[in-house]
Structure formats: structure tokens, C-alpha cells
Amino acid sequence: EDDSDVNSLPSNDSIVELWTNISTWGPCYPRALPERHRHRRLLRDRKEMSSSPRNWTFIVQYNSDQITDEDSIVYPTYKKNYHSSGSYLSTAGESLGGLCRPGFLIIGQGKCGTSSLYHYLTGHPRILPAKEKQIHYFRYHRSKPLQWYYSHFPTIESFLGRGALMTGEASPGYMPYPDVVESVVKRLSPDWKPSSFGDDEDAGVKAWKEHVRFLPKIIAIVRDPITRAVSSYKYNYIEPAMKRLKSGRGITAAGEQIPGKKSDKYYLRHHLFSFEELAFAELAMLKECLKPGGRGERWTYTNFGKRSDMFFYDSIQRRNRNNSTATAASDSLIHLDEACYTATKSKAVPRAQWKELAKEHPHKILQLPNLQLTQSIIGRGVYALPLGWWYEVFSIPAANKEDHIHVVCTEDMADTPENAMDDVTKFLGLPEFDFANVTNVGRYNVGGHRGYDTITKSHDDDEDDDDGMAEGSVLPHQDVDLLAIS
After folding, report:
1. With 0-12 CB in 10 A as exposed, 13-18 as middle and 19+ as buried, what is 285?
2. Strands (E), 365-409
3. Which of 10, 195, 255, 382 could form a cystine bridge with 14, CB 3.0-4.6 A?
4. Residue 465: CB partners within 8 Å, gap ≥ 6?
């Protein structure tokens, strides 16, 4: 062997320095080299090493257990004793070593086809699926460290072994909540918040690009609001109400027990509100809450824009200034769920919007689980309001359409799924891929809560992600044109 090859190899100290200074490769964090004797593994193939002595991907491959099954995807095991620096964003090292972060988040809306979109997308050969579709870290688990969150995504060895470029999750509960937007930023790109730069657009674009590159890209999916509302009514009101009534646990709006073990027809006729009844009650409340200067604007300002240390302070102040000089409709940021849907002290009538309904129909049921969904069968289809918070962070008008947020229509997914997926692929910056074989399999989580990995053939159901009742069931309704409530 030529001794010059040995002399050209980096020393142990230089390898450690090189490794320590590497923060990330693509979506993954390199594994640390805590013991000097482990560095000897890097020198086993000196010729190969000397040809590219500072290629850290090569270092990762030699410092990690080799993948024996090319078809396997390995997920990390979360250890509670991970070292934590106390910061949301740790540096490369033992804490995040070998873990990979998401390149995209599908944020919802619910009942719009998030399951189908996610499974189609993970059919791309350069995307690896998460351990589970819905992690909801930024909504329900954000008190846990990033290591816990990243343990839901494939390891760096899986990325390298599969030639993957990206992973991600789909949590439809993300879209409605501005605190989720704030949590995403604070966990993944600390010390930054949307700011107003006045006339200095260049400074604003530069700051935005500098920080948004640390964040996953956002994908939202929306559906015809009326179709979505009917689907939500079936799944979030009718189904849980039937389950509770038949078990004998149903309580009327007047607080009386409802007898169990009756037929569907009996409950539909005597104890369930129609879609129109719930929809009109909600619309009346929304009209009052969303009027200029109404509770929606006032509550949101107090809780998100009153103090300068608030994350969305600059955004809300800027929009308020624009509204004061505008002649068009208000452009205010409004936290729809928290500002408009107010609770009551009554267990039998848990939301203020239903008080009049309860007086008119005291024998019907309103006390159900998942009230945040039952209360907003219409509101969850007012997509502009929740998306406004996401656009404040993931889009900037002066950035030449370099948005980090993309909106998909459910109807496009159903009618021209390959074209819709091509648009998503381009948005994520992935190589082109023919999704025909993936989309032709069918749709996921359709026709009732059959499970997020359950496939329904395209001809088996008329509507994508319509988690409704079983075939043959009848909805209680009045002769009202549904388009009249849009």
C-alpha cells in the first residue's frame, strides 16, 4: 500500500471537529462519535476513505449499523434519558443524533381527505412514512422534547438505505389553532416570529427565508364546505349520538335520561337534531361573532395581539392598521374556535349557540364527546380564517411566490388525482413520479371510521373521506335548500 494514502487521511481530532460542526444533512442529524476508539471504524477502508475524506455521508454509513433488509424501515426507540440542553432546538449530538425531522406537515382540514392525501404522498419512492399518520405533536404533545417527536420518523440509516429525501405527518387537528403555528416555529426555528418591516421589503424577505428554511412545508386540503359539513354532521354528531343512545347513556337537553336499546328510526325521529337545525344555530352565532368589532376580533386581539411580546403581535397590529384604511371587508386574524364557540356551565347544553335549540327541542341530545367538532360543522369549513394564521408564517407576498404552504382541493384529488399529486410533488421539490398505481388503489378512511389505513376502492363510495353512516341509513332533515346556508 502507498503510505501517502494513510498520511492523507484526517486525524481522529479532525474527524471529531468535522462531525461536531455538521448540524444536519437534509432532514437528518448525524450520529455523534462519543468514543475515540469508534473512530477506528472510519479508517477500515483507507482507499475508499481517502478518495473522499470529508464526505460525511460516508462517515454516517461507516458509523452506523448497516441495513440488512432494503425493504425495512427502522424507527427510533425513544429514551427518556436523552440528554436535553433545555432548548427546543438542540444541536447535533447524542440528543438528536440519527433522528430525522419532517419535511412536510399535512394540517387538515378534517373530513377533507387527509388520509388519502397522506397515503398517496408516501407512495412516492423518495418519501418515507411516519410511524403513524397523526402524531399531533404540536397540538397535544408539545410539552415532550423533540426527541420524542422525531422518534416517530424513520432513522437516518433508513433514509440512506432507501435513498429517501423526506418524511412527514398528517394531523388534521393542526389547522384550526394559531397556537399550533406558534409551536411549530418555536420548536423548530426558535427566536423568530412574524414581524412588520415597514417599507423595507428586502429585509423582511431575507429574514423570512432565513428562518422558514428550518420549518417543514405546509400542505392543507380543503373540500366543498357544504359537503364537508354534512360529512362532519354524520361522523361527529350522528354516529357518537347513536352509540351513546343505544347504550342507555343519552341525556336530553333538559337533563333527562333517554332509554337505550331502541331502533335507529326511533332515535332519529325523537332525539336527534337535524343537520339544518345545528347548522342554522351555528350560522346565527357566527354572524354575530364575526361582524366588524365583534367578539371574534376583540377576543383575538386580547389574547394574541395586545402585548408586544405575543408571537402574532406584529401580524395583528399590521392587519388592524390595514383594516382602518380599507374600504373592503375586514382582513383581521380571528381564532374562530376559541373566540366564537363559547362553553356553558350546563352539561346537557354545553355550548351557548345551542341554548335556543334546547328550549325548542328539550327532548333531543347535545351532550356528546368531541364537542370541538360537533359545535363547528359549519365553522371548520370557513377555511380562510384558520389558514390566515398559517400564511402569516409560511408565506410572504414579496418572496416571489416562494410560499411554503400549498392548498389541495379534495375534488381535484377525486377527479384528477395524478395532476393534484404532481402539483404537491413540485411544491415539495421532489423528483417527478407517476402516481397512477398509487392513486388507483383507492381512497383511505372512507365511509365511516374504518381506520386510517383502510382502503376503499374508488367505485365503492361517492365521496372522498365521507365518514358517514352505513349504507341505507337516513338523516333527519327538513326540506331546506342546503345551498341557502353557504
Report:
1. buried
2. 405-409
3. 10
4. 111, 112, 113, 114, 115, 116, 223, 231, 410, 443, 444, 445, 446
Q: How many residues does the chain have?
A: 486
Residue at 177: amino acid letter:
Y
Q: Please report the pLDDT score of residue 200 as a whole number.
A: 65
**Cell triple for 391:** 400564511
Summarised one tens digit per residue, pLDDT across range 212-254 is: 888 999 999 999 999 999 999 999 999 999 999 999 999 999 9
Residues 6+ apart with CB under 8 A from 287: none
Q: What's the angle, vertex CA 478, arms to CA 463 and CA 372, rounded to 5?
A: 60
**Digit-coded pLDDT (tens) for 95-129:** 788 899 999 999 989 889 999 999 999 999 999 99
DSSP-derived 3-state class of residue 210: helix
How many other CB atoms are there within 10 angstroms of residue 18's CB atom?
A: 16
Copy the grid coordinates of residue 236.
Answer: 361527529
Residue 379 is classified by DSSP as G
C-alpha span between 226 and 483 (Å, rounded): 8
**Could you say which DSSP state residue 470 is in?**
P
User: Distance between CA atoms of 423 and 432, rounded to whole angstroms?
Assistant: 10
| Cα atoms in the 13 Å half-sphere on the side-chain side of 140 | 7
pLDDT value at 369 more than 70: yes
Give the closest residue to 386 by CA, choosing from 291, 300, 288, 466. 300
- Backbone φ and ψ of 364, nearest 5°: -100, 165
